[in-house]
Design brief:
- By secondary structure, the chain is α/β, with parallel strands linked by helices.
- 33% of the residues lie in helices and 14% in strands.
- The chain contains 12 helices and 11 strands.
- A 7-stranded mixed beta sheet has the order 3-4-7-8-9-10-11.
- Strand 10, helix 9 and strand 11 form a beta-alpha-beta unit.
- Helix 3 packs parallel to helix 5 and helix 5 runs parallel beside helix 6.
- The longest helix has 18 residues.
Length: 340
């Protein structure tokens, strides 16, 4: 792997970590079989979002790179190529773990240069993927944010977030905490093939219910809505109904986007499982990474109408006090929040 490209060299200290700090482990237990962990000592943990990004936040923390959720559409696949790791199976099974993330975050939050800006987590890869069950980085991260009363948000598909519920409650007492769970559909057959490493949608929505019942407001990012596979009116209705029944404070639909890296992997999956849809996808995404604006608006309108029917939104629970992923207007060049 290209660890040397990330180490400190003669051009300056721009490294992410040192090559000598990398420890590779293969854990031969049922829950981690086939997964290799690369433990690293990161040089920094709070990352600035590029200025050209349209994300509704400026800073992120990502304790992991690579994700065992193995979502076939995950945009973060491309970043694995920076380490000369395979962006397909390698992204699902070669997990980089920043073992010093909690202590590093505490140090960076204490810096005089830090102004207490909102920090988003789970926007690149899921911080509550299976690796978190072994490495337990998030408790220390949440504790650091709590102790500095620093606002933060978490987007996840992982039900492991419930382990840290007491810490989230403590943090919410002193700062703004936003939680959002990603559930794009409730079709179990679709889930098993496109998100094979994640908890089921039912389990995720049960986590939403637990969070809201204990006073932690939780929205649902209905993402991705997958064209021709998860966008039928009855599928949208079933999903929004289930989200409403979970007690979610909001629902934000986002249509599948296919950036380079993810596009190739998703297209290969599509050719294997749904070859009759390949040409339809080529036409729909001929203009780039995003579905046409008219299609995005159509899905958004349908979901908003269903949300109003089932009592989510301004006429139901009301907008959440701590917004994690506010829905942006669809611009001329469509954008979408990053997924897990």
């Amino acid at each position: 792997m290209r660890w040397d490209n990330l180490t400190e060299g003669p051009t300056g200290p721009a490294a992410l970590f040192g090559a000598g700090a990398v420890v590779t482990r293969t854990i031969d237990t049922p829950e981690f079989r086939g997964i290799t962990f690369h433990e690293v000592r990161a040089r920094s943990i709070v990352n600035r979002v590029p200025g050209a990004s349209r994300m509704p936040f400026e800073w992120t923390v990502n304790p992991y790179r690579g994700c065992s959720h193995a979502c076939v559409y995950c945009f973060a696949r491309k970043t694995h190529g920076y380490l000369d790791l395979d962006t397909g199976v390698g992204c699902d099974s070669q997990i980089v773990v920043k073992t010093n993330a909690p202590e590093l975050l505490r140090r960076e939050l204490a810096s005089r240069r830090w102004t207490g800006a909102h920090i988003a987590m789970g926007t690149n890869v899921d911080c509550y993927q299976r690796a978190e069950g072994r490495y337990r980085l998030m408790p220390g991260i949440i504790e650091a944010l709590r102790d500095h009363a620093n606002p933060f948000s978490i987007l996840t598909k992982g039900t492991l977030i419930l382990r840290d519920l007491p810490l989230l409650q403590e943090a919410a007492a002193v700062t703004d905490v936003g939680i959002s769970v990603s559930v794009g559909f409730t079709d179990s057959g679709l889930w098993r093939t496109v998100e094979p490493g994640t908890p089921s949608s039912a389990a995720r929505l049960n986590a939403v219910r637990t969070l809201t019942d204990t006073g932690i407001e939780c929205g649902v990012l209905m993402a991705p809505v997958i064209p021709f596979l998860g966008d039928a009116p009855e599928q949208l209705r079933d999903t929004v109904r289930a989200i409403a029944e979970s007690g979610a404070t909001s629902v934000t639909p986002l249509v599948l986007h296919l950036r380079p890296g993810a596009r190739e992997w998703f297209t290969a999956w599509l050719g294997e499982h749904h070859p009759h849809l390949v040409e339809r996808y080529e036409r729909m995404y001929a203009g780039g990474s995003y579905a046409p604006t008219w299609y995005q608006r159509q899905i958004t309108r349908q979901v908003h109408e269903l949300a109003a029917e089932f009592g989510i939104g301004p006429n139901g629970h009301g907008a959440p006090r701590r917004v994690v992923t506010p829905e942006p207007p669809v611009p001329a060049e469509p954008t979408q929040l990053t997924l897990l």
